[in-house]
Amino acid sequence: MAKCQRNDLASVILDRPSTSSGGNFRLWNSFSGSSLRRKLFDAVSCGGSSRYRHRHNDYDFATSARSVSENPKPKAQEKPRGVKSEKLSDLLSMADSPETVTDFETKKKEEALEELKRVAKELQAEDSEKRKAAASMVRLRCKEDSEARVTLAMLGAIPPLVGMLDSEDLESQIASLYALLNLGIGNDANKAAIVKAGGVHKMLKLIESPNAPNPSVSEAVVANFLGLSALDSNKPVIGSSGAIPFLVKNLQNSDHESSSPQSKQDAIRALYNLSIFSLNISFVLETNLVPFLLKSLGDMVVSERILAILSNVVSTPEGRKAISVVSDAFPILVDVLNWTDSPGCQEKASYILMVMAHKGYGDRQAMIEAGIVSSLLELTLLGSTLAQKRASRILECFRVDKGKQVTESFGGSLGGTAVSAPICGGSSSSSTNPIAGGSKECLEEAEDNMSEEKKAVKQLVQQSLQNNMRRIVKRANLPQDFVPSDHFKSLTTSSTSKSLPF
């Protein structure tokens, strides 16, 4: 009785309308959070809402007093009220228990599995509308759910989706294409299964019809080729299927209505994936892709990807020949070396030139005629670490060529005898220390005996060095008097031909 009276009194105080905001604030502050919750539990365990007790206040108190005086209950009879309170508390705590959360998640997964089973079953239904709706559901569920991709593949969703590509209905074709695309996202097993089920050949059949393919279908096929070509085992199948000419055609298509910018980006990335497999290079060279890519260099958005494809093409002798026969190929690649704001393009262009310079003497001569030396010198100073190494290797190839030319020139004029340094001055001091003793006289004598033609060549070399260094100093924002002209003169007159930067 006392407990119920305290609970009723607390309820009356809590439910009592306040006459002023200050009084209400003081009443609420008189209870802490834990005591308030305990009083609420006790009030509920005694039964009745606060509104009901307000309405029958006098009756409740009179009945309670009479029942206690006439028929006092032992303390053991008050236990059920405590039990009710404990049960309520248990129910509230069970709502947040880990077991309840785990059961909820398990139930949710079971419902999702049943839904996927239903979708996989409807993919094989005779009704085309059901199949189309099921394909759309596969596309939706697999877009961001990796578990759904695995589950649907295990339920056999890939073969019926590939079979839907034979449908004459355009919406069914698009729904199945995007469902297959999302099934392969980040899942190599699904990518292999799609190719094994004949998906590549059926996709090509959609776009090889006599009529122009629908732009939406072409875009979806390109996106699928991009995803499927990321798997190494799929590269030879896709490359030999005839997909490369389609991708090249899609890339070169200037009609924005039939080929979106996103589709072009997907096509060039798919061509890069396929060009990684060396046997696909021959299929690439059957198209006019290489000249098109070289002419397209300049757009910073796609240039690095273009150079990445050319880096794969240059790995074969046929690919190097295809690049070298393109008019202005070397001037275009040399110009890329000067793109200081794109280190990635510089590195890839220097790789292409390095491979071609290492493999072909004729290509080295064409590079020199394109003015590569000054660009390489600048790259060795201002380029990235990788670009500097590649530029140095190209310069080394030129230096070796220059040394061979000098050796052959002297060997031919002297009948193949060995060439030794001239002995100037007969004193032993000059022999032991030619630089201190007679080097100046030797140089003056050699210059007097030099023909007019060799003097002209020497002057051109000096002017070339000066111009190259001035350009490098200007690009590096160094002081203009960083390298005086007198230093150039002393450098060129005291150096042999093998040390020239060619």
Automatic annotation (TrEMBL):
Gene3D superfamilies: Leucine-rich Repeat Variant (1.25.10.10). ARM repeats lie at residues 156-198. Keywords: Coiled coil, Repeat. Residues 63-92, 483-502 are annotated as: Disordered. Residues 490-502 have a biased composition (Low complexity). PROSITE patterns: ARM_REPEAT (PS50176). InterPro entries: ARM-like, ARM-type_fold, Armadillo. This is U-box domain-containing protein 12-like.
